[in-house]
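Table S4 entry, Phage tail protein.
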Amino acid sequence: MQVFSERTDKPHAYLFGEYTNPLSFDPIELALSEDGQAWQSIFDDLNLSNVYLIDFDWLPPVIADTYRTAGTRDGQQLANSRLDQRDLVLKFIAYCHGDADEKLTFQSLSNFLIRRHNYWVAFDNGGGRMYHVREKTITAEYYGDKMMMITVTLNNFTGVAQSIMPSTHINEVPNIGLGLPTDTVNYVFSTSEFDVNNIGELPVDPLVQGDYLDITLTGTGSPTIANTTTGDAITCTKPLTTGDTFNLIGVNPKINGASGWN
């Protein structure tokens, strides 16, 4: 999967002898995707060749607690706790040729970031994470007619970030901060018994949270999949024969794509 630009001349801070390079900093590369598979980098948009991302917030989790009262008992009891939505603030700087160019640049950045549907954003210094977002606000602060600062607020409505790469290709992109162990991470096995580790910082909960989970088994017999953390388990009561495929998609089991066998 190609997430960021393949350009060999990406914008960068001025180096010795680069007399026409105006940058005194290394801009952050921003990439967008509507499906998490096909990505578009800001460095590949010709209309944004004068716009540079200089900063974005590393988002801390936002905890939303719900409390309840119990009769005449003093205080309240914690009913449940969840991760709430949060705002991701991006800071851009743009160098322009005049007032009209400033307006065109602002419009080009708006067109790049404002989409009809939810989309994913990723940053080249973001540790292999992507955030599911909606554009919230975009404002500009002008410094004459040659430079402006643009502040963009994106709403991470899911409250969490996730790895850009699927687990079967997790080693293709560095995932700083996602709990990766130092040894090789494996999600493809060919033995009759094996352990799978969740390298994320949150438990995978396809039933309550709708987290993506797709387990595929091929083989013979009646396999059992067990979550040793929660104690949950599922056993394929219809024995598999040669060529059969057992899928657990979220919490829905299927054999050869068909449900209703168990």
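The first helix runs from residue 99 to 113.
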